[in-house]
Design a protein that fits this description.
Order of helices and strands: EEEHHEEEEEHHEEHHHE
Strand content: 25-35%
Radius of gyration: 17 Å
CATH class: Alpha Beta
Structural class: alpha+beta
Shape: globular
CATH topology: Phosphatase 2c, domain 1
Number of domains: 1
Largest sheet: 6 strands, antiparallel
CATH architecture: 4-Layer Sandwich
CATH superfamily: PPM-type phosphatase domain
Number of helices: 7
Helix content: 25-40%
Number of strands: 11
Length: 253
């Protein structure tokens, strides 16, 4: 499996509040997470960095106990992801309460573990996980945002949601409350499929079909093509304004 991730401050922000990590375990098991912070320059950057670190550490500890997650069921791996979110939320919230300058900070989180042909994913907020399969792109995660809620209630159309001034208002975040609810997903992937984890700095400017087309150019035998695809996604978002920090992680089966 090939993989590459890149983050960029964009054209309008002075500080990059996005953070990500990709980890390859033995047996070609992959783990990736993207976090997009909020709460002022220092708070947002701190929240996303802490969440990524705590979440990664939890996955590392679990993998050390069960190398390559061998012997764990899909439900067990989802439990590992759940504990990672819980611990990340606890630490971000603790810091926000303890330090006045960080009060109110929080972060989105989208992460996944790829084990063979199975993918186990989690998300909080509006950073997204997409899967490109059989020439189609599907949003696997579901936004925890005000406009998504209004769409679900039938009070706003998807087209209206795309241009709404409220589209960046999220309804869940890691670290803003003592506890947080996360959504979990399972899916199957095969040779040639692509997984994309990204912050809304990308999806605010780049349509899903464009993400599909760019990532479909990745060659399974060419590591450089994964890097070029991630860079092309970020460049396109910047060309169209780069109004937020931009992060794109591509996992190519």
């Amino acid at each position: 499996m090939l993989f590459y991730g890149k983050t960029d401050v964009g054209r309008r922000r002075a500080v990059n509040q996005d953070n990500f990590v990709i980890r390859r375990y033995a047996g070609d098991v992959l783990f990736a997470v993207v976090c997009d912070g909020m709460g002022g320059a220092n708070g947002g950057d701190t929240a996303s960095a802490v969440a990524v670190d705590v979440f990664r550490d939890q996955l590392d500890r679990s993998e050390a106990e069960h190398p390559s997650f061998f012997g764990l069921s899909g439900e067990d791996i989802l439990d590992v992801l759940s504990v990672g979110v819980t611990e990340a939320n606890r630490e971000v919230y603790r810091m926000a309460v303890k330090e006045p300058a960080l009060n109110g900070m929080g972060t989105t989180l989208v992460g996944c573990v790829v084990e063979g042909d199975r993918v186990y994913a989690v998300n909080v907020g509006d950073s997204r996980l997409y899967a490109v399969r059989n020439g189609q792109i599907e949003q696997i995660s579901r936004d925890h945002s005000l406009v998504q809620y209004l769409v679900d209630c039938g009070r706003m159309t998807p087209e209206e949601a795309k241009v709404s001034t409220m589209k960046n208002r999220i309804t869940r975040a890691v670290g803003t409350e003592r506890t947080v609810g996360a959504d979990f997903f399972e899916l199957t992937v095969g040779f040639g499929d692509r997984l994309i984890l990204c912050s809304d700095g990308l999806t605010n400017h780049v349509e899903p079909e464009e993400i599909r087309d760019i990532t479909s150019q990745v060659e399974s035998h060419d590591p450089d093509s994964v890097q070029h695809a991630a860079e092309d996604l970020i460049a396109l978002a910047n060309e169209r304004g780069g109004t937020d920090n931009i992060t794109a992680v591509i996992l190519a089966v």
